[in-house]
Design goal:
By secondary structure, the chain is mainly alpha-helical. The protein folds into 3 domains: 130 residues, no CATH class; 78 residues, no CATH class; 174 residues, no CATH class. Helix content is 60%, strand content 5%. The strands form 2 sheets. Strands 3, 4, 5 and 6 form a 4-stranded antiparallel β-sheet that branches. Strand 5 and strand 6 form a beta hairpin. It starts with 16 loop residues before the first helix and ends in a 5-residue tail after the last helix.
Length: 439
């Protein structure tokens, strides 16, 4: 009597074209086909996202493979297993019955197993007189053999994609490091160029990178970063070829060229004139008489409103936002990394950022911001500089600019915001602003 092989699921479970395709793949299975079940299972684990399998469905597949006694599957072997739900759940680490059925359906939809349901839906095997299995109802594992080569190719494609993604991320990291350090070299060595604009271009490219980026986007950004790095490198190499270093410069190793020598000599002359006039004692007393508490962030931002334009979203709510914005101001002013480190060491991170913001506020009046910052750093080391008079001077200039002209009503303001809020400085602040102070 010929035994009928079931091809449709039991009960209300529907039949799909995907299941028919899986059954068609097993029909063409050659008897001499051989597959190592655990090697194929490893390929399935690698390609699970392409197949649509889940972690729990793979746990069930692993349990189903353990019910077959053979390690090597052949095309002419009996590849049907018939464990009960209790046995299958026990080998799947105690998975609940509802979860078990749901993920078995996932394996069927992925074409990794085929249902061979009995007329009543039970799983069992009928044996002949000699003990051989005549008919089995359960889960057919023949797709493991029929799709072994396909699964191996899918796993290889996934591994190749992972390698390509890893290489792209490594290239991105190296390009970012190269560009930042090359920009610092250009600023440090005084190479002519708009290094602030170059830094903004770099930030615009990197800003397109989301937290979780696909490989193609990473490679596109790498192309743009490589082009930017090439341009920076060409500028630096061209400058190095034309620059003839003296013997003393080559021995010193690193030569700072962005400081203004005229500014340095001018500062020395000013200090000498002050000493001759007896003004040094007044300046020292002025610095030591300043408030001991830190400058409030609101006063700093009121004195240096230009720094807000560089902040993300043009909002600075905390000191950490202010310090982050100062890192953007530094290259735009052409301040070298070494000058910035010296200022932070002498003044402290917060006071150095306030000083840089004040210099940026008066950038149109300062010929060499880097040299000016070094001059202020030297004065800070000698205890002759504080950020209080600098900020007070900016506020005083701002209030002087807002004074009403002759014949104009002092209570009337053309600014609708001022009319709405009627902002007035406190008497103590006005008294502090009236006192002349030196930067």
């Amino acid at each position: 009597m010929q035994t009928h092989i079931s091809t449709t699921p039991f009960g209300r479970r529907p039949m799909t074209l995907g299941q028919i395709s899986s059954q068609m793949a097993t029909k063409g299975l050659k008897p001499e086909a051989v597959a190592h079940k655990w090697q194929v299972f490893q390929d399935i684990r690698e390609a699970r996202e392409l197949l649509g399998a889940t972690d729990r469905s793979l746990a069930i597949l692993n349990a189903l493979l353990t019910f077959h006694p053979e390690t090597t599957f052949t095309g002419d072997g009996e590849l049907i297993v018939w464990p009960s739900n209790e046995q299958l759940a026990a080998r799947a680490n105690g998975m609940p019955a509802t979860t078990l059925r749901r993920h078995i359906a996932v394996l069927v939809d992925c074409g990794l197993i085929i249902r061979r349901d009995s007329p009543n839906g039970k799983r069992f095997a009928r044996k002949g007189r000699g003990g051989e299995i005549e008919q089995a109802y359960g889960f057919d594992l023949s797709p493991i053999v029929a799709r072994a080569q396909e699964l191996r190719d899918l796993a290889g494609a996934v591994q190749a994609e992972k390698r390509a993604f890893r290489v792209a991320k490594e290239r991105l990291t190296l390009l970012r490091r190269d560009i930042v350090k090359l920009i610092d070299v250009g600023i440090e060595e005084g190479v002519p160029g708009n290094w602030g604009g170059v830094l903004q271009s770099y930030q615009a490219i990197v800003g397109r990178l989301p937290r979780s980026a696909p490989r193609q986007l990473v490679e596109d950004i790498c192309i743009d970063l490589h082009a930017l790095r090439t341009e920076i490198r060409e500028v630096l190499e061209s400058f190095a070829e034309t620059q003839k270093m003296s013997a003393n410069e080559s021995q010193s190793g690193r030569h700072i060229q962005n400081s203004n020598p005229d500014l340095t000599s001018e500062s020395k002359n000013c200090l000498r004139n002050k000493k001759e006039a007896g003004g040094t004692d007044t300046e020292d007393a002025n610095v030591h008489s300043l408030p001991k508490r830190e400058l409030p962030l609101g006063i700093v931002l009121d004195a240096c409103p230009s720094v807000r334009e560089l902040a993300q979203g043009r909002e600075i709510r905390h000191w950490r936002d202010f310090l982050a914005t100062a890192e953007l101001v530094r290259p735009m002013l052409g301040v070298s990394p070494s000058a910035w480190r010296d200022a932070q060491d002498a003044l402290g991170e917060r006071q150095a950022a306030i000083t840089l913001a004040a210099i940026y506020q008066r950038a149109d009046q300062i010929g060499s911001p880097g040299g000016y910052l070094r001059s202020l750093t030297d004065r800070a080391r000698d205890g002759k500089f504080s950020t209080w008079p600098m900020i007070m001077a900016l506020l005083r200039a701002k209030l002087d600019a807002q004074k009403p002209m002759k014949g104009q009503d002092p209570q009337r303001s053309d600014d609708p915001i001022d009319r709405e809020h009627n902002l007035q400085p406190s008497p103590s602040l006005l008294q502090s602003l009236k006192t002349p102070r030196k930067w």
